[in-house]
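User: I'm writing a short report section on ligand binding and want a predicted complex to refer to. Could you take this sequence and pyridoxal-5'-phosphate and write out the structure as tokens? A short remark afterwards would be nice.
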Amino acid sequence: MKNIKLDFPIFSKKPELVYLDSAATTQKPSCVIESLREFYETSCSNINRGSYSLSFEATKKWDEARNSIKKFLGVAQDGDLIFTKNATESLNLVAYGLSSSLTPGDLVAISILEHHSNFVPWQQLSQRFGFKLEIIPADLEGNIDESFFIKILERGPKVVALTHCSHVLGTILPIERLGRLARDAGAKVVIDGTQMVPHSLVNLSELPVDFYAFSGHKLFGPNGIGCLYGKLTELESLPPFIFGGDMIFDVTEAYTIFSKPPRKFEAGTQSIGDAIGLAAATDYLANIGMENIRKYKSDLTNYLIDSLKEIPNLKIYGPKNQRAGLVSFSIDEIHSHDVSQILSSRGVCVRSGQHCAQPLMRRMGIDSLTRVSVHIYNTKSDIDALCSGLRDVIRIFS
Ligand SMILES: *Cc1c(COP(=O)(O)O)cnc(C)c1O
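Assistant: Sure. The structure tokens for the complex follow:
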């Protein structure tokens, strides 16, 4: 691959930066930054309601942005894409919407691997509405317990909500199979794709899912924009999450008729520029090719794992085989916050702590982990800088 780092202005402004936290947010290529600037310099206005050409132009760009992201994800005629603020809002939108038709005695299943944003909403709503919540366990490699899963399916859950890729362990779940099993059992399938979409090609028309959520900022896009994919029939029956302007067809004193999806779920003025920025990001990724990206990340992750294995007293978590571009580890007796702080003083950015997955950490019996995540702008020299920093950490604590 060409020198991808050149596409990301932050690396020329901060030449010392070793950024290994792309699972928390990715850096932005200049085409994304430029697309924001261009929108605000040339087309800034509100959409859908203007009667002048500037507003038509902004509306056109907004529609084109949605179409371009739909194309990137293989969204077919029977599905659509809603713009939200982030994956958290997408998952809340689904959880609130589906919960409204659940009654006590109904069952929802999630996994222990879930990010808090696909865990806390279901937990809180089950306490509020009285439906039952089952949590599917996983082993230390992040593989969910399939016999437990099958047993749950025999009880006819109304919803199964799973992550596509663990943000702590890097495990990729076999959603093609699990989704089909869940659907055959009559459940609606909700998938958190936040770590998967930036990692490899996701074709939503081929996946057995009803809803699929992700964030733009982990996909080279701006902050403040996320998406929720839904099957059209599901989006039509799901009640709206937020009420207000722009999502209505007719309002009388007594009742309101909502617009069709996706507008039904897009109340109020949207993050127009950010949606356009996200489309610039998906165009950028499509241009490099998601399969090239996956291969590059996998090779670099293998190099990362091999390098980490040479560090004494370091324990790597997660699957032995296929994983996304992230690795979590602990070092005997040294707290992950100390690890990340010392690395930071050497310009190396990694994540430490509980990674918005406290139930998983508790079940694994781990207090905290250090997580390293790579993307296409990283190179072997970044990994070498990380490992030399880790050797310093061990020296300081020995
Ligand atoms: C980051 C993350 C989220 C939450 O994303 P936000 O952008 O903070 O809403 C949800 N799920 C996974 C797997 C994540 O990694």
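A remark for your report: Residues 86-88, 115, 117, 163, 167, 192, 194-195, 215, 217 surround pyridoxal-5'-phosphate (CB under 6 Å). The longest helix spans residues 53-72.
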